[in-house]
Amino acid sequence: MHVRLHIRRHAGRLAVALVALLSCMPVALAWGPRGHRIVAELAEAQLTPQARAAAEKLLSLRGAHHLDDVANWADDLRDTDPALFRRTKRMHFVNFHSRDCIYNPPRDCRNGECAVAAIDKYSAILANRANLPAERAEALAFVVHFVGDIHQPLHADYRHDAGGNDFQVRWRGRGTNLHRVWDSLMLDSTRLSAAQFTDKLAAQRSHIATGGTPTRWAEESCRIDRDDGVYPSSRRIDAAYVDRELPIAEQRLREAGARLAALLNRDLGDG
Question: What is the dihedral of CA 143, 149, 153, 154, to 10 degrees?
Fold first, then answer.
């Protein structure tokens, strides 16, 4: 009897430990804080006066003043609200399951748990003036973040490596993973602050396609991930890799900012 009780208690402790371990496992989160702030700052500069005023009103409900104040909130939930983070963590990415990079919702977004469906969901909440202001303010924070996420190529992957988290590489002589390279290391290597980086990208004159849908944006990311050398054959991130891939990352940041602005101008503007 005492042996059985001991076994049950031991099994219970193991179960609790396993749950704690799983909750601490890394989740592929796109763009580091710098990248998400850049997207938000680029977007805010392109808002119409009506959309800007509506956004500021909603942001004030969260103690914020600018879009970049909430740009990383959905990632920060891992520490500030673990329960909400667990419910939304699959909304940060989309797994295509096929290298054709054609979005198939039943296959790639079961139960609506992916970045494509999340942007559609929270954009609809944001646009509906009948919803509670606090609900719309939360939706705004999610939209700002998830639009950034979906433009990071490794967040629309078809491989089975957790968006590059399980793809080990060497960066400046140290081991890391490919996702972190795209999250932050390449952007950080410029030594520019988020504001300086934003100014640099805003000054670029190359064309940006501002329209489209979350589906199209995800498919673009998947094709970049597949075709544009994102995965290094040598597993070594050298200067040539950065010279080739950093401009692609910068273009995706610019596109994310412009498209986020267009979405917010639609949802928060006069119609």
Answer: -140
